[in-house]
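go over this:
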Amino acid sequence: MKKSNTKIVSDYNKLMAEEKNVIILGSIDSILNWDMETLMPPRGISLRSLQLAQISQLRHRRSRIHKSGNYWKRSPKARSTHH
């Protein structure tokens, strides 16, 4: 494999690993919201609100970081699977 192809594959793999992290944070957010709606004790809303805000910030930050990375611009494989 050429050096440039190796770099593209490496960048694509980094992109996919970051996307997985963003998806996992989204699933945590979903679970916390579900729990809040179905099982949470009345006094738990303050802590749950803080948890949801933290997860939301992390998810947004991770999403912005990987979507602005140079590997996104260089990787044709990533661009073709994004649509």
